[in-house]
Amino acid sequence: MARLYAFTPLCDETSGLFVVVGIPAGIVYAEANRILTRNLLALGVAAVLALLAAWLFGHLFVIGRTRVLVNTARQLAAGELGARSGLAHEEGEFGQLALAFDGMATAIERREQALRESEAKYRSLVEEIPAITYIIALDEARTFLYVSPQTEAILGIPPSQFTANPEFWQQRLHPDDRARVLAELARGQATGETMRAEFRMQAQSGSFVWFRAQATLVRDLNGQPLFIQGIMLDITERKRAEEEIGEANRKLKVLVAESGERNRNSTLLNEMSELLQVCQSSREAYQAVGNFVPRFFPDGAGALYVFNFEHNLLEAVAVWGEGPPSESGFPPDDCWAMRLSRVHLMSDLQTEVGCRHVSSAIAGGYLCAPMMDGPGGGPGPTPFTDEFPGSGRPEGKGGHRPGGS
Q1: 336-352 pLDDT tens trace
Q2: Which of 152, 258, 290, 325 has the fewest Cβ atoms within 10 Å of its own Cβ atom?
Q3: Helices H, strands E: what count in the chain?
Q4: End-to-end CA distance of the chain, in Å?
Q5: Residue 173 φ then ψ, to 5°
């Protein structure tokens, strides 16, 4: 056992005698240890109390308020824009922080309200215009993200069908327009240029509606592509009007051409009539007819026949055109026009009964036209026959009785 010793000489230091007393160390330090233990316990209790007080103070004044701010931030993030901390009235740094936080929440709420009002105005404007507005994703299928309700009014198809099935709108495109429209979308996405196209889309009724579409690639603030936004205008009536105008123009051109042809023919008839009136013999009249008829039928060939009473034959007195009929004469019964006493038109030699005086080698068709005598003439009609072979234009061939018109 450890001891503490104390010694002192008995007489003097030279005698060499000392008195020594040894006391156990535990006895010597017992009081000091009791005081130290008591002080350490008091210090520990004070430290615990201080920590507990600090914890209570932090929980009440720091952690609790911090949790209020965190919970309010979570509510704002969840969309509860009316959430506030309720700590803005307090003094100190937390009060200032809460005031700034609530001010930020108020600003966010006002901005969100402004955005909603702006979106409502934009949507109202978009949905009231007589056109289809749309937003297309940049995926491979060109999925519709939004389509205005006008699809139901114009096509009879609700917008949900366009957004539910990415391939639906492509299936509705006219087969002749589909590849061109998809290529235009791809080009606009690649270059960023405005896309314009006219195409047909099938309505619910099965008919096709003409649209003129314009679309633009929308980018974010960093220039990255977001989506394609566009508008489709119904131009069916305009297309129908264009077709009607085109058809009217075509008819007008035909009428003008026909009018010009009639004027030309009228002029030729007048000229031929004047010439025939001054002819002094039948031979001159036949020659005049042979000269004028090719001008009426420039692409045809034919002949003028005159009835010969003595031989009961129709004899050629004038021929014209390239490859005119080779028959110099034929009996009246060989011609259907003579039998029927009216014009006889043959357009299909394979299915219709033809005249015996017409060669079967004619590729196209022909026309036999009988011309009646004037007063005091013979007993019946005589033919004037036009033949139109492969060229499709009539070739003249006909006849009249001597003295007829």
Answers
A1: 888 888 888 888 766 67
A2: 258
A3: 10, 14
A4: 173
A5: -70, 145
**Burial (CB count <10 Å: 0-12, 13-18, 19+), residue 159:** middle
Scan for tokens 């990415």, then name that residue: 166
Residue 280: how many other CB atoms lie within 10 Å: 7
- State how far the Cα of 103 lies from the Cα of 27, in Å rounded to an integer: 71
Nearest one of 124, 170, 172 to 143, comparing CA atoms: 170
What mean pLDDT do residues 364-391 have? Answer: 56
Report percent pLDDT > 90 for the chain: 14
* Rounded Cα gap, residues 227 and 319, in angstroms: 77
pTM of the model: 0.46
The rounded percent of the chain whose pLDDT value lies above 70 is 82
Mean per-residue pLDDT, 28-46: 83
* Residue the block writes with tokens 């002749």: 176
HSE toward the beta carbon, residue 327, CA cutoff 13 A: 25
Count other Cβ atoms within 10 Å, centred on residue 206: 7
